[in-house]
Amino acid sequence: ATEPKPESLHQPQPARRKPLTAAQKDFLDRALRVNHAGELAATLIYTAQSPPINKAHPHLRPLMKHMYDQEAGHFATFSHLLARHRIRPTAMYPIWSAAATFLGWSTGVMGREAAMACTEAVETEIGEHYNGQVREFLGWVKEMEERGEEVGEELRTLVEDVRRIRDEELEHLDHAVENDAKEANPYELLTGVIRVGCRGAIWVTERV
Amino acid sequence: ALRPLLLRSPQALYHSYEHNEPPPYREPESAILSAALTHVPSHGFTQHALTLGAKDASYLDISANLFPKGVFDLIKYHLVTQRLGLKDRIQFHDENMGVGRKVRSLILERLRANADAGLVGRWQEALAIMSLAENIPPSLRELGLLADEIWFLSGDTAVDTSWYTKRASLSGVYAAAEVYQTTDQSTEFRDTEQFVDRRLEEVRVMGSAVAGTLRFLNFEAGTSVNLLRSKGVRI
């Protein structure tokens, strides 16, 4: 009569930690590869934009450095995740490197507004992309909780990392708009081309 | 009931440390194939070895016919289990050991695994079966996965273009060494060890030559741009 009566003794317990499904692994593989390539492109864009922009507008130097440092941190995070979880990096690495350097250089040479418009376009696409990923991961966490499975540190830290990085990218978007991104001269053309380019690059990187 | 072996391996994708993969072969398949491998030294890579394996594992002889690709499934079982067992066969405790030396140790250990299983005398048959048209893609895939496993176990963390070049070159070295090993008559396969050393040295020299050239070209490009900028050209 004095024995404790735990409920779980008489109820079947679901498996605490199941292997990830093939669809989940596929999603993680593609998502992290695209994120890695995206941050690579971002660091190269800022590296190429900085010399002409800083020369013409020295007051932007601290902002450019701040954004570059954050992108370099993101790149390091995703490089570490790719190596740890044995994910294949994109085979388009040298091509994206060349394209990003060219994009950064050309918008940098076009002027401050164009450079900021480029940042705005890229960060808008990236922000939407990260939002989609966070939504997907949170969906998994919810399903796991409903089934009584343990979520685990791996998935939890992944969600937190991607959320933090998404917030920092949206902060860059705000900085770009504050610095007259909308004043760029062929604004619609420039942002349109860059956004379509980003979407195409994301599509290719998911597969290649 | 026994079912066909895994149709699609998710191992090549995201590797989780908390959500563990189920083993690649289920109990009945694993029992029959591991028993069959013990008969290969005396009977070769043949359907007969599979049948003897099925008998050893207390199944009917006809159970061997349930492997759709026959003897190739036996070879693939050996490749998969040896690849996954590589991390248990060798562990590195020396913090100062460089990645190159670890790669060398891992290659030699994997070759030693072929010898320990007694398969070196029959491996030319296996290579012949692997080179049949329908078996080439899965065999190449296993070779690629082995190269990936070796680089991962040696602690390499680069995720740029070298990820591809390293795996390609290591696949080439390992494949050549495995073929060489089948003709090696020296004690403890010392000739094969030296063969591996020569191939790794070639890869190292090629790699550093290419890397040096690229670094040089990169430097020249950057310097020219900076030089023009310092002269006032608006680029």
UniProtKB/TrEMBL annotation, chain A:
Residues 1-20 are annotated as: Disordered. SUPFAM superfamilies: Ferritin-like. It holds the Pfam family COQ7. It comes from the Eukaryota. GO terms for cellular component: mitochondrial inner membrane. One of its GO terms (molecular function) is 3-demethoxyubiquinol 3-hydroxylase activity. Keywords: Iron, Membrane, Metal-binding, Monooxygenase, Oxidoreductase, Ubiquinone biosynthesis. GO terms for biological process: ubiquinone biosynthetic process. The keyword Metal-binding applies. The keyword Zinc-finger does not apply. CDD domains: DMQH (cd01042). Pathway: Cofactor biosynthesis; ubiquinone biosynthesis. PANTHER family: 5-DEMETHOXYUBIQUINONE HYDROXYLASE, MITOCHONDRIAL, COENZYME Q10 BIOSYNTHESIS PROTEIN 7. This is Ubiquinone biosynthesis protein COQ7.
TrEMBL record, chain B:
Residues 137-206 form the COQ9 C-terminal domain. Pfam families: COQ9, COQ9_N. Its main location: mitochondrion. One of its GO terms (molecular function) is lipid binding. Keywords: Lipid-binding, Mitochondrion, Transit peptide, Ubiquinone biosynthesis. Pathway: Cofactor biosynthesis; ubiquinone biosynthesis. It is found in: Mitochondrion. Residues 31-55 form the Ubiquinone biosynthesis protein COQ9 HTH domain. GO terms for biological process: ubiquinone biosynthetic process. The keyword Transit peptide applies. Belongs to the COQ9 family. This is Ubiquinone biosynthesis protein.
